[in-house]
Amino acid sequence: MLSLKFSEFSIETGTDEAGRGCLAGPVTAAAVILPDNFELKLLNDSKKLTEKTREHLRPLIEEMALCYHVTNIEPEVIDEINILNASIKAMQNCITKLNPSPEYIIVDGNRFKPINNIPYSCIIKGDGKYLSIAAASVLAKTYRDEYMNKIHEEFPMYNWKKNKGYPTVEHREAIKKYGITKYHRKSFRLLPDQLEINFEV
Length: 201
Known about the structure:
Blueprint: E1 12-18, E2 27-33, H1 51-64, E3 67-73, H2 75-81, H3 83-96, E4 104-108, E5 120-123, H4 131-154, H5 160-163, H6 169-178
Parallel strand pairs: 1-4, 4-5
Antiparallel strand pairs: 1-2, 2-3
C-alpha cells in the first residue's frame, strides 16, 4: 500500500519526471497535491502500470487532486544545462505553479535543488511508496507520451509512437539512416559512434 503523506505538513506535494533517459523529446515533470481523503486503488509507480491503466488514471488524478501542474523542458534546454538540471528545473517549474503553494515537497529519486525555501525530501523509488509521487509519475508519463505521439506524425520514421524516444535498437537504426531532428538531444550519445550522425537535419 502506498502512503498518503511523508511529512507532518498539511500541504505536501509529490513530484516526478519522465523521459530522462530518452534520446529525443522533452523531459516532462509533474507535481501533485492530493487531498487528505484521497484513495485510488490502482495507483502505483507509472512504470509498473500498463499504458491503458495510466490513461485510465490520468483524468481521475486530475479530477481528485487539490491541484497539479505539468511542465516540458525541451531538448535545446536539456543540451544547454544537462539532463539532471533540466529534470530538476521541470519539477521546480511545476511546484511554483501550484495553488495552494506546498509547505513540503517529496521528490522521486536522490537529487533536487531547493525552490522558494520550501523544505523537501528526496525519496529513492518514491513513486512506489507515496501516492502523490505516483500520481505525478502517471501525469508526467502520460503527458510526455502524448507529446511523443504528436511529434511521431511529423517524423514517423523514428517510430516515437512506440519507443517514445528511448534508445531502442529501432530508434538508433533510424538515427543512423536518417540523421537527427530538432527533437533529438544533441548532447546525448545518440549512436555508439557519434561520427556517423548527420547534424544537418
